[in-house]
Amino acid sequence: MVPDVNDRALPELDVERPGRWPRLAVGLSPSARGRVRLRTLNNLRWMAVAGQSVALFIVYFALNYPLPLLGCAMAVGLSVALNLGLAFRYPAAHRLTNREATLYLAYDVLQLAALLYFTGGIQNPFALIFLAPVVIGAATLNFGNTVALVLLAFISVSVIALMHKPLPWEPGNPLALPPLYQVGIWASLVIGIGFTSIYAWRIASEAARRSAGLAATQLALAREHRMASIGALATAAAHELGTPLGTIAVVARELERALPPGSAEAEDARLLRAEAERCRGILTTLARPEESVIGALERLPLGALLDDLAGEYRGGEISIRIEVPKPPPGNPEPKVWRAPALLHGLGNIIDNAADFAQSMVRIKAEWNARELWIVVEDDGSGFAPDILERIGEPYVTSRPGSYAVSDTEIEPASTYGGQQGMGLGFFIAKTLIEQTHGSLSASNCNGAGARVVARWPRGAVDGEVPPGTMGVL
Predict the structure, then answer these.
(1) What is the mean pLDDT of residues 254-271?
(2) Is this structure's pTM higher than 0.70?
(3) Mind listing the pLDDT tens digit for each residue in 179-205?
(4) Which domains does the chain have, with CATH numbers?
(5) What's the per-residue H, E or C state across the chain?
């Protein structure tokens, strides 16, 4: 799943902790460093082949300077053959891994060294072209491969400085450069390769970090925009659904009065009225989110809070088991604020676990001096691998029936008697938990079932100040 990425391009960005940059998926890295396209390097090599061919033609045919034309032609022809072979072997959009790109550029260094060996070594003014493949590598490869390419260039320059054919010149009047001058040429090439490679590497690294920051900012803004949209929809739904729910409650009350007391139908009517009133209460809370946060809050021991949350799901076919350890001396059980974001976030997690469990949901609380965490496990089938990779993203669901395949497209519903979803429950729970300075992670149990862990640093939900109130006030 993880492609060959460079080891220095991006800092690891964390979406699990609010207030930090979101973690960027490797496949979505904005810089894509170390994954240069084959077409790009092929086009650069065609330019090099054209320039080398023109230079050889002018020197041999126009200036009539003697040179080993066969050896030079073989070096250029090998580049042509390699380019044609790669063009037929791979599609134009093929992206090279770090290792492939390193081998590709290493060949360019060796081919240039062979061509300069036949034409005077570092006395040839075209020895400056050694900088080209090294700079390209520094801008696209990781640190280790860049160092390997630079070392290969250093060795090549040093070898052709000592062993090379004479520089093509006028017959009978060879050009003899002083040894000290040749040492200066060698030193300038070595320093130039080292300096330009370091400079290109640093500039490319900074560009990658800026791209990562921009992508993370865009992702954070997109999430905030979606949450704002969900809040607006919730307020509109509360306004629009208030009247029909009131009508349902009135009709249910009339049915309850008309039916014989104690009958099953009267019990159903009473239940219908109670559920309608409950829905109206929830919608009233959604219509006034500020009041739900600023309003009266209370602190409960962690075990009591979990018992309160699980009470709604008790009495059915699913058993809810809460495990809270006995507080050790000097580390009492935390008292947690009943903040709406915390209640709704944990409530969504418990609701999902109860929906998918076969017979039992286990809620376990733990804490230490640095953090507290709540683990919710069920004995269902667990998360599917494709769902687990994207858990926490909106519109990702494993519920049968109607489901969203994109932000605006819904697949037709299949026959299903259980709950249907659009994949927003876990996304909303994750966002709400993060608003309380917590983090949420999901995995599968060792045996069967799913596990969701919510973590908070101490003081985030059990401190003196209720979580989430500062932003509203």
Answers:
(1) 84
(2) no
(3) 898 899 999 999 999 999 999 888 888
(4) 26-222 (no CATH), 298-472 (3.30.565.10)
(5) CCCCCCCCCCCCCCCCCCCCCCCCCHHHCCCCCCCCEHHHHHHHHHHHHHHHHHHHHHHHHHCCCCCCHHHHHHHHHHHHHHHHHHHHHCCCCCECCHHHHHHHHHHHHHHHHHHHHHCCHHHCHHHHHHHHHHHHHHHHCCHHHHHHHHHHHHHHHHHHHHCCCCCCCCCCCCCCCCHHHHHHHHHHHHHHHHHHHHHHHHHHHHHHHHHHHHHHHHHHHHHHHHHHHHHHHHHHHHHHHHHHHHHHHHHHHHHHHHCCCCCHHHHHHHHHHHHHHHHHHHHHHHHCHHHHHHCCCCEEEHHHHHHHHHHHHCCCCCEEEEECCCCCCCCCCCEEECCHHHHHHHHHHHHHHHHHCCCEEEEEEEECCCEEEEEEEECCCCCCHHHHHCCCCCCCCCCCCCCECCCCCECCCCCCCCCCCCCCHHHHHHHHHHHCCCEEEEEECCCCCEEEEEEEECCCCCCCCCCCHHHHC
